[in-house]
């Protein structure tokens, strides 16, 4: 049988240990309580003017801010409530008046500070609070919502937006330059032209209105009417106009004719008929042009017609009429009408001027669609030549398109005509005004 009333030495030791443990816990608790009481004594009682102190609902969990008159994110209490109420009153705060300083309260404080010229840190410190509760506090003035940034493109602008602009202007025929993304003079005048034709104020700057219209379905193709922007002409030296309404006299002979078959470098151009003449200035320009073409790898050029005298035109015209009468059995009047479609009446041919040349490729009757023709149509303008007759302008010139027939007018005019798209008749009518 086991003794139940007596303690073993081990049991005694355990009891002693337990007593010590209980005593320790008790003393520690007492100490902590004293600490708490000390702290509670420091924390002031809420006063009627709560702004001078900070009050937290749980005195054992003080916020990290020791200064009592700073309210910031995570501050809690009556003071925060008062702050929110005041901010709400002034229109800066739209949230709950809950005494909890969260991001909404911070944003309101920041907005208030911004409007009142205080360092906008979202912390309600002394300065902010002083203004907030004074009669200097203003009600919230909302800053206007920024409209989508109007991309204004003007001289000096560059980049992708400018490229897009140039591409669109080119598509509509207003721009003829490079798509290089640089807003220069050419782009500015294209914008201006577009604005003029679309009844926008023509300042040459692509602002919101212009851009909106440009990229809309209401954007129209260019209408080629002469405008002062595309044509600048020096008075005095207008190109000679020879057409049905403006024939030359029977004895007209241009000054300074040269024999092209001896004058021209045959390594550059073949002169089909010996004795073919042209006006020196025009022939020089022609040779410069064809030499450049050769340097660029476009060779095999031929001049199959240049200056033609009145009598030479007379015989060409006459032989054509006879050919029509003979081969098609036409009357003289009918044959003359048929001939007039392709051969100028004596006195009305541009070849009388000595400034017109028919350019072909030696050894072939083909010219339209050749490399030479494409090069000529692209570059002739730069040398003072124009493509005198095009199908588009047949109603005005009286001639069907002649891709091979170029006319020297000088670069001042050729470039103007290229840019404006006007034929010689239209151009002269414009510049004479
Ligand atoms: Zn011709």
Q: Summed up, what is this model?
A:
The chain has 433 residues and is mainly alpha-helical.
CATH topology of the domain at 257-308 and 349-432: Muramoyl-pentapeptide Carboxypeptidase, domain 2
Strand order of the largest sheet: 2-4-5-7-6
Helix and strand content put the structural class at mainly alpha
Q: Calculate Rg over CA atoms.
A: 48 Å
- Helix and strand succession? HHHHHHHEHEEHEHHEHEHEHH
User: What distance separates the N and C termini?
Assistant: 144 Å
Bound molecules: zinc ion
What is the CATH C level class of the domain at 257-308 and 349-432, in words?
Alpha Beta
For the record, the CATH architecture of the domain at 257-308 and 349-432 stands as: 2-Layer Sandwich
Mean pLDDT: 82
According to DSSP, the number of beta strands is 7
What fraction strand? 5-15%
- Please count the helical segments: 15
Shape: rod-shaped
Please outline the major beta sheet. 5 strands, mixed
Helix fraction? Answer: 40-55%
Sequence stretches where pLDDT stays below 50 over 5 or more residues: 25-67, 226-235
Protein model, in words:
By secondary structure, this protein is mostly helical. Among the domains are: 50-132, Muramoyl-pentapeptide Carboxypeptidase, domain 1; 160-214, Muramoyl-pentapeptide Carboxypeptidase, domain 1 (Orthogonal Bundle); 257-308 and 349-432, Muramoyl-pentapeptide Carboxypeptidase, domain 2, CATH 3.30.1380. It has 15 helices and seven strands. It has helices at residues 9-42, 78-89, 103-115, 126-132, 160-171, 185-197, 208-214, 260-263, 280-295, 310-328, 332-340, 371-379, 394-397, 411-420, 424-432, and strands at 257-259, 270-271, 277-279, 302-305, 356-360, 385-387, 405-408. It has a five-stranded mixed beta sheet with strand order 2-4-5-7-6. α10 (310-328) crosses α11 (332-340). It is rod-shaped and about 145 Å long. Bound molecules: zinc ion (ZN). Zinc ion binds at residues 305, 351, 356, 358, 402, 405.
